[in-house]
Amino acid sequence: ADMFDGILMAEQRFHGEGYQEGYAEGSHIGIAEGRRYGLLHGAKIGSEIGCYLGFALTWRSLLQKCTDEKSSKKIRALESLIGMIQKFPYEDPTYDKLQEDLEKIRGKFKQVCSMLNIQSDFRIGAERSSLTF
Amino acid sequence: PMGSHRHPPGSSWTCRAVLGDGHQRTVRRVAWSPCGSYLASASFDGTTCIWKRQEDGFECVATLEGHENEVKSVAWAPSGSLLATCSRDKSVWVWEVDEEEEYECVSVLNAHTQDVKHVVWHPSQELLASASYDDTVRLYREEEDDWVCCATLEGHNSTVWAVAFDKEGERLASVSDDRTLRVWHRYHPGNQEGVACSGTDPTWKCVCTLSGYHSRTIYDVSWCHLTGALATACGDDAIRVFEESPTSEEAQPTFSLTAHSSLSNLTLHCSASVLRTSVEAEPSRRKRPRVSFSRHMSLMALAVFPVSFLE
């Protein structure tokens, strides 16, 4: 019975071996691809937040000398944005509130731009939008 | 006056002003300030204009910019010093106006994940509600110099088009592309019904879902603060009025949704159905303005009673 086992179970065995080989190769390629994607995505986020931080720090020092009520409101908003950016956990891509905090930073940046009367849209070229309800 | 039979409808209204230069695209919503001196207009051109009433017309005193694309709705808070706008760019903006009529953005809220269709303020508190293409209703309040999303109402299976608070503000009605009207009840921390609350924020629970009444998307809902009646605007060309009854009434058929009525279970029945009335679901391209949907629809429904009842 044993000598037939080899023939009867051949397909199953090859299937299993093939699967193991493929899985290992796939994991290897996947890790490399994931790493590249993480690098790209992380760089994009870093670049975006870095832009906001530089912007906020610059404006804070520009408004440093101003003591009027309007300027102190702007400074308060700028400090809030700076605080949010500095609190952001850059080292942890598994942070559960990552997306949420990012959106809060983007929202605060937009609010600051509105207060400073600056266009927050740094994109070049007009975006065409369709009629919706 | 509206509803009078002596004059043809619309003849006692005169067009006092045409504000044609404020926007470059569809004007999607208008809202009067609580004091009545200002009119806010939200447009697909991405801006919201604030118009001040003058003796001889209206003057644009401010243009609120910042949204990336179409502004879908604008609403004034009952205090009159706050304004909210929402847009296809998925955000809700809260604006503050001071004594010098200067508008300032106090918060940009990115809580929704899709197009925000509607914003409405609580009748007496500085609490804001928004409805979105992401199937949720969100609530926002001020917390330490900034605004935060304090509740997310999940339950609808499709776009939520509109929301309305009841007179006390302890309940909220929402209508959706999923053809249902939902009523949500606010439970405060320490409530006797045993509804769990996280921290100091109240929890909103869906206590009533009206399904099977509307055969198409429901685009708008209005909660009468005088009579408590709920009116809906639907893509199936009908307006429906719902009334809450603690007990089943003989004069009107009752479509019971739940067996009994208590704080946590409501019985709402359809008291009247006005058929063959077109409800606009798209911005109007007409030159002649239509008669607006009366906010006292419930009283009108009682006036035309009895009418044919739907299944």
UniProtKB/TrEMBL annotation, chain A:
<dbReference type="InterPro" id="IPR052436">
    <property type="entry name" value="LTO1_adapter"/>
</dbReference>
<dbReference type="Pfam" id="PF09811">
    <property type="entry name" value="Yae1_N"/>
</dbReference>
<dbReference type="InterPro" id="IPR019191">
    <property type="entry name" value="Essential_protein_Yae1_N"/>
</dbReference>
<protein>
    <submittedName>
        <fullName>ORAV1 protein</fullName>
    </submittedName>
</protein>
<comment type="similarity">
    <text>Belongs to the LTO1 family.</text>
</comment>
<feature type="domain" description="Essential protein Yae1 N-terminal">
    <location>
        <begin position="18"/>
        <end position="56"/>
    </location>
</feature>
TrEMBL record, chain B:
<dbReference type="InterPro" id="IPR015943">
    <property type="entry name" value="WD40/YVTN_repeat-like_dom_sf"/>
</dbReference>
<feature type="repeat" description="WD">
    <location>
        <begin position="64"/>
        <end position="105"/>
    </location>
</feature>
<comment type="subunit">
    <text>Component of the CIA complex. Interacts with CIAO2A and forms a complex with CIAO2B and MMS19; the interactions with CIAO2A and CIAO2B are mutually exclusive. Interacts with CHD1L, ERCC2, IREB2 and POLD1. Component of the MMXD complex, which includes CIAO1, ERCC2, CIAO2B, MMS19 and SLC25A5. Interacts with WT1. Interacts with CIAO3. Interacts (via LYR motif) with HSC20.</text>
</comment>
<protein>
    <submittedName>
        <fullName>CIAO1 protein</fullName>
    </submittedName>
</protein>
<dbReference type="InterPro" id="IPR036322">
    <property type="entry name" value="WD40_repeat_dom_sf"/>
</dbReference>
<dbReference type="InterPro" id="IPR028608">
    <property type="entry name" value="CIAO1/Cia1"/>
</dbReference>
<keyword id="KW-0853">WD repeat</keyword>
<feature type="repeat" description="WD">
    <location>
        <begin position="153"/>
        <end position="184"/>
    </location>
</feature>
<comment type="function">
    <text>Key component of the cytosolic iron-sulfur protein assembly (CIA) complex, a multiprotein complex that mediates the incorporation of iron-sulfur cluster into extramitochondrial Fe/S proteins. As a CIA complex component, interacts specifically with CIAO2A or CIAO2B and MMS19 to assist different branches of iron-sulfur protein assembly, depending of its interactors. The complex CIAO1:CIAO2B:MMS19 binds to and facilitates the assembly of most cytosolic-nuclear Fe/S proteins. CIAO1:CIAO2A specifically matures ACO1 and stabilizes IREB2.</text>
</comment>
<dbReference type="GO" id="GO:0097361">
    <property type="term" value="C:cytosolic [4Fe-4S] assembly targeting complex"/>
</dbReference>
<dbReference type="InterPro" id="IPR001680">
    <property type="entry name" value="WD40_rpt"/>
</dbReference>
<keyword id="KW-0677">Repeat</keyword>
<feature type="repeat" description="WD">
    <location>
        <begin position="20"/>
        <end position="52"/>
    </location>
</feature>
<dbReference type="Pfam" id="PF00400">
    <property type="entry name" value="WD40"/>
</dbReference>
<dbReference type="GO" id="GO:0016226">
    <property type="term" value="P:iron-sulfur cluster assembly"/>
</dbReference>
<dbReference type="InterPro" id="IPR019775">
    <property type="entry name" value="WD40_repeat_CS"/>
</dbReference>
<feature type="repeat" description="WD">
    <location>
        <begin position="109"/>
        <end position="140"/>
    </location>
</feature>
